[in-house]
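User: Please predict the structure of the protein below. I'd like the answer in C-alpha cell form so I can feed it into my own downstream comparison script.

Assistant: Understood. Taking the following sequence of 271 residues as input:
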Amino acid sequence: MRSDRSQSAPLGLKIAAACGLLFLHLPLLLIFVYAFTTEEKSYQWPPPGLTTQWFAATWNRPDVWQALSLSVQVAAISTAIALVLGTLCAAAVSQTRFFGRETISLLVILPIALPGIITGIALRAAFNLAEIPFSFWTIVLGHATFCVVVVYNNAVARFRRTSGSLIEASMDLGADGFQTFRHVILPNIGTALLAGGMLAFALSFDEVIVTTFTAGQQQTLPIWMLEELVRPRQRPVTNVVAMVVVLVTLLPILAAYYLTRDGDQIAGAGK
C-alpha cells in the first residue's frame, strides 16, 4: 500500500502552484532584465538591447554609495540592539513566571503587528515631543522597534524547547551564571539568534515606511530608490541597485531558513 507522501500531487494543484510562483517572482526577474537594458528613459518591453554599462554607472555614483553605507550602518546597529534586547526579553518571558508575562509578550511583538505607518507616526510624535532632532540615531531607534520582535520570536521559541534541567545541572555542578550562559544556553540558542539577527538585518535594510517618518535629511538605499523612481536620472541604475537589495535581503533569509530548519534537535529537549 502506497503512503500518502509517495502520491503525486494532482495536475491542477501543480499548475496552481506554478502560477503562484510566477506571480510572486516574475516581477523580480523583470527587475534583473531591466538592469541590462539599453533604454534609459522608459521600461520598454522587450528591451531594445542588452548592456552592462549601468553596472559601471552605478559603481561611479557617489549618492548610491552614501545611501548603501547608511543602510548597512543602520541595519547593523539596529540588529545589534535587537539581539541584546530581544534575547533578554525572550529569556525573561520563557524562563520565569510572573504576573503579566503574557501581556509583556504581546507588547513586545506589537510593533511588527501594527501597520508601519502607525509605528512611524507614533515614533515621529514621540521624537517631536521629546525634542529629539531627526538623525541617524532616530532611524536606528525606529528600526530597532521591529528588529527586536524578529529576534524575540526566534529566541523565545528556542528557549521554550531548551530543557530547564540543563541549566539546573550546570548550576549544581558549580558553574556561575556566565559559564552557564556560555557553555549551556548559548550553544542551544546560538543558531536561533543568528537566524533572528539575519532576518532583522534584512528587514532593516529594506525598510521604507518607518524610515520616512524617522529620518532627517538622510537617505537610506530604499528611500534613494523611491526618489529615483519619482525623479529618474538613469532608470536602469535604479534596477541595478534593486538587484543588490534583492541579493542582500535574500541571502540572510535563506541562511536563516537553513539554520533553523533543524531547530527541533535541541540538547535536552523534552527531558
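That's the full C-alpha cell string. The radius of gyration is 23 Å.
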